[in-house]
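Input chain follows. Return structure tokens only.
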Amino acid sequence: MRVETGIGKLPTWMKRDSASSKKSEGKAPPKSLGEVPPVVEKLENHPDLAEHFLHYGLLQKLRRKLKMLSGRDAKIVLAKNTVAAADNKGVVYIGVEFLREHWRQEALMGAVMAHEWGHLISNMAKAGNLEHLSWDEIFALRRDEEAAADTFCGRMLAMMGYPTEPICEFLTIAQKGSDTVKYYAAPIRAAIIEEAHRRHSERKQMTKKLFPKRIYSNPYTSRIILADE
């Protein structure tokens, strides 16, 4: 299973456990663009967070918005030791501590989920054997994958009517003391998100001028207040 860890600091679950290490002792791990999946948490162990997974909860509202705008659905689950992640099985993981701390910041939650949605629709999910590539080449592919997800995030934020400032600030804070070759620096990622947001906002304004609402209502260029279908 390939998992993207698109937002924030490198999670602790990237390290293999002792059992896995014994099995792979003396053998190099296969090269991959993703990481080991985070550990799924049971909602009953976190009753204060369960409401966000209900039909009218924050995460399900954001899921429906992203589903309508991207044409791709996903299952949202709670997980340990991560901010957010997505795998190639159509699952988006939301970290326990991240959700508990930031659930009131709808724009930030929307941005994090939009970034993970960018991984869900990525062609990188179909990547085959990478053993012929060097690790530097794999890290370069990974940075491009993250940049593409950031671009998608910026576009989705514009389409959903959310600002970019919360996610850009979050990336800047999260990167402190945790630089990595797997991601572009936080200022670059913020610039990518802001530029994608700006371009789509300009395109949306042009579309509104060309197609007044009374003539042609386009859900892909309209701000979504609530999507419950």
